[in-house]
Batch of 2 targets.
Target 1
Amino acid sequence: MSTLSEAWAYLTTAENWTGANGITTPTFDGGWRFAQDSIIALTLEHLWMSFAAVALAVVVALPLGVFLGHVRKGGAVTVVTSNVSRAVPTLALLTLFAASAIGFGNNAVILAAAIFAFPPILSNAFTGMADVDPDIREAALGQGMTRFQVATRVELPLAVPLIAAGLRTAAVQTVATVPLAALVAGGGMGVIINTGLATQRYGQVLAGAVLVAAVALVTDGVMARIQHAATAKPLREAAAATA
Amino acid sequence: MDAPDNPWLSLDYLERNWDEVSEQLVIHTTLTLQALAIAFAIAFPLAVIARRAPRLSSPIMGVSGVLYTIPSFALFGLLAPFTGIGRTTVLIGLVAYALLVLVRNIVVGLQGVDRDVTDAARGMGYTPMRLLLQVELPNALPSIIAGLRIAAVSTVALVTVGVVVGYGGLGQLMFRGLQSDYRAQIMTATLLCLALALVLDLLLALAGRLAMPWARRRTAA
């Protein structure tokens, strides 16, 4: 019971949200970083790291998946990557990066999270493009569209629902992975949990866990909205009919 | 860099620390298997209930979907104040995640059984229990095995996060390797994790083949 009230006390103390020195603190070399004692700053940092990781994965995986799906080659490769990536422990990647030239800190975490966000985006983009009805492609080609036009004007719009679903999986998974950053001296909301564990303030651990879960759920909700909005109405109805 | 030699791979490390490495490997393996067994024992009845009572299926699926978005790091942290530091906490967390994967796959598998087949069995006078065990279960087996394989592989990866509460199996080695900047320790633990996931995946695939002789015959034909 005391843990619950401790957590409540932690969450309702204004100082914990703003920190002693505001959102950012100066570093020794004249730069700045997010304050480690402020929930708001850590949340912002968490969102920034997640966004950077997903963006990085999207830039590489989306064009690749769309292209491979369009030419319908490399299906086996995408399946193997997504299966193998599930077996790689996040902690292993984080510690490997931290011990290598990439070093400690947020950049290593962003890179690791991007690698984990890569497979769902790739495989969904591939499946979305490759599963477009061959008759539709034939019809578009028969109407005199070039292959590029078929890819961008016919296949891509039809693949959008699956691509959006892949982005959603990747985003939520990334938000849920970034807390591990605290173990390799990175920032984000994991810091709240990690500090709590280290100082045996379990109320703070509980508060941090609730906050991270809340951010993950909100992300999922926002991404679901985006997925819904990105899906054309007829496709939405078709999906509802099969589900 | 004039630091002492710090190789990524070192047989020397493995030889000198075999006792510790094998101990963590055993912990890792038993934790994974235990979590899978417990999760399956809970997931199967849940999935059957979800299948039999459609009104319960969306809450069961919904709750498992929500639980899955809770970060593992947070979950272990969340449990720690209540169940303490150590094996129980990690096991509960692992079971929770494996459960979600398994329930989904078992429900999908059971729903995929051809209605005509179940109707025929019912017409032949099969009791609900016999129908479940002799008709629905074998037909849903491919999906169940697929779910078990995903759950096994992701559980192996997840055990490492148990390091948060001081019981992470091979994750323990990774974390300590990081703290002491000992690359061979991290790499060895990582490779062992991957190997363990691969072996479990292969064993489950093999078990699936043995349990479904009809599927084998079909692909051979």
Target 2
Amino acid sequence: MKFLQDIFEKQKPHFEKGGKWEKYYYIFEAHYTLLFAPKDVTSKKGVQIRDAVDMKRMMMTVIIALLPTLIFGIWNVGHQHFLATGQEAATILDKFAIGAYAVLPIVIVSYATGLGIEFTFATIRRHPVNEGFLVSGMLIPLIMPATIPLWQVALATAFAVIIGKEVFGGTGMNILNVALTARAFLYFAYPGDISGDNVWTYFGDSLIGMSDPVQAFSGATPLAMAAADGISSFSNFWLSDAYTFQNMFLGVIPGSIGETSTLMALIGAAILIITGVGSWRIILSVFGGAFLMGYLFNFIYDINYTGQLGTGVKVAFLVGTIILFIVNQKFIKGELKAIIGVLAGMLIFTAVMLFSGAASEFMKVPAQFHLVMGGMAFGAVYMATDPVTASHTFQGKWIYGIMIGALTVLIRVFNPAYPEGIMLAILLMNVFAPLIDIYVVKANKKRRLSRATV
Amino acid sequence: MSKTIKLKRGFDINLAGKAEKKLVENIKATTYAFKPTDFEGIMRPKLLVKEGDTVKAGTPILYDKKNDAIKFTAPVSGEVVEIVRGKKRKLLEIKILADSEIVYEEFNKFSVSDIESLDAEKIKEQLLKSGVWPNLIQRPYGILANPEENPKAIFISGFDTNPLAPDTDYLLKGQEQYFQAGINILKKLTSGKVHLNLNASGEVSSLFSQIQNVEINKFSGPHPAGNVGVQIHHIDPINKGDIAWTVKPFGVAQIGKLFLEGKYDTKRVIALAGSEVKNPQYYSIYTGACVDKLLENNLNTDNVRVVSGNVLTGRGIKKTGYVGYFDDLVTVIPEGDEYEFLGWILPSTKKVSFHRAFGLLAPFFAGKNKEFVVDTNLHGEPRAFVETGSFEKVTPMDIYPEFLIKAIMAEDFDEMEALGIYEVIEEDLALCEFVDVSKHDIQKILREGINLLQFS
């Protein structure tokens, strides 16, 4: 590769101080360091050797972990297309071809817009190009429906990178998850193109001679149906065996490009956890929090609708959880304290719900269904684990994760406008993550101060 | 009653080129250097010698105008041949051309029973003028101990877990009586205890098995279990207002020898280790020896980094540089100043990483005993903090290093104090700097924070 390096070395003086393209130095540098790891060495004071991992390799690991969802997503877009148009006999290659035709432009637009902005900022601000967008650029397409207009992708990406990240100072400084900011932008600006029953299935466009083969097709997602009529409506769907637990787990259902398959997200989770890039605490606690909240809702529904539970038992339940909460505050330490604290909070909430007598069809959805429907798994694995916007302390990660899981189910059940909750839950907890850390660290400071004698 | 403390967090870096337990005695370096930069906290050094002067081992050559009681003395006898200054005339090295036979300044000599009856004042006086005092380091801040203080305890770490660290027992072979005498003397300098911390996973050596007058604590776990700062944190943590002292085992023996023999003897055993050394082994030298003789015909390649100390906290020196005052190890590793095609992503079985990220998993399957050749390449470029949790995973203390470092960067004094800056010095967070994906100079930032706190 010497010749390639020679080309770079030859161009280098033009970009260095005093060169004719001086202000584009960081763009040059980004390309050079992408091809060749730089020769910088450690300083003479301090550590003399460094860990072999840098930001580029870390971000690349996340992209590799995302590949299963991307590949499956491309296939699934094709699969849903043929399913809806009644051509179930289509070959796997056909499905991939249609899927790729719909998905790849979105990926390309996302990267082109985002990297363009990154390069612009790097040039204006004179700082190196950050690797963060390599991941965001892949995440954004995966949480869009395949039918999203490309100009909206570009607009949302631009909004996310500029308002979600650069105004805070760039990668590492942002408060909100960049990819989710893009999605939230579209959700509020162009809701018709990103939610509802009609956006999840790609029918094709007239450019390649495809036209809507069916009129008035409804490709509702399981979440939308469960929100409207409860889980019993699954069997009334036009394709009656479409929404089995197994199908939802595998992901052969309508939905955002990369979000449908829990299995693929779990493969990605395995990659992230083995490589240590994603926090297993967060992934586990998001799933745990969602399952528990789902289970508590099942419990509330059963008690309030069918079962008879005396006020005495309800009071005992409430008092019991409050005692648990107090005991936790006083006697339990470390990460366990964080977990029990949030769980106690959820139990108290449940007790209040029991007194209120609340019940809705969505509450009946079995807890394990919550884990495989919608973007739950994708959000838990790829979004909640974003190290910049998540809690930084170990205890904080447990609280952060359980809260995301619980809030997701809470929003799903109670939000009348929108059946999915993971995006809002993560964004909300992004905002709270620093606060959680402040309290965790405060406890640490208090321990230290309590020892002091001066 | 001895305690055993098990530490789980940390990371052992297994480098190639461990020193073989063979001692080379008759290496005679010609020049020796005293480096004021080895000590944190020398503010206004005042030279007592000039080029051409002759000195004996133990002759004062320097003192700090801020603390003029502590004398820094010549490690060997001979002629002062050069005084090296750096930018802004900063004093860097005082070079001494050694006599072929070392002549010592004479200090008071005591028998073992005499030492029993000595009082702290007398002890301090002898320690201060002889040049062994700088072995005593004060926590917090990791600076030279102030003779006017009475520390709440003195801590000695009896083992070293740094990469390629020499075996402490081997370094002190035959010095048992001096070590014990040193302990007895230290005991008089504190109203509290003298703690000797040993490796729980190794067997107790002959050196430490008979030792008296100390509190023995045992530690097990990966690096930095051998760091005295980590040990203090678990035995008797330092709070605001506390003062504790630390001494390295060699310093203890040196103190003992000063009193039993009446001379400042800097003869010590050091290890020469690292992947680029042909024959990594132990050498007997005097403190401050030039490394050129050790490296002569002993290197595998030419493009190397010579480090006085270990690769985590040591300092890069020239091939004709000098061993630092506190260092018992010289490490030689390859200099990594080369571009590597797609180096940031190509899978490799040769690179060391705490993170196991993609392409670096192979070392994990190779097992704990695989030895690595690691060069000085930075492996990436500096970035904003993105990774979280890794600092905590390599710091076996109840401290949040990431928050502490950010507090220092923000120059927030209250936060620094509350987050435990009193409990750490550079070596305690060295692993954080190693594992940092964003390639910050954590140790440098920490020292800036300590200086801010100390001088404001």
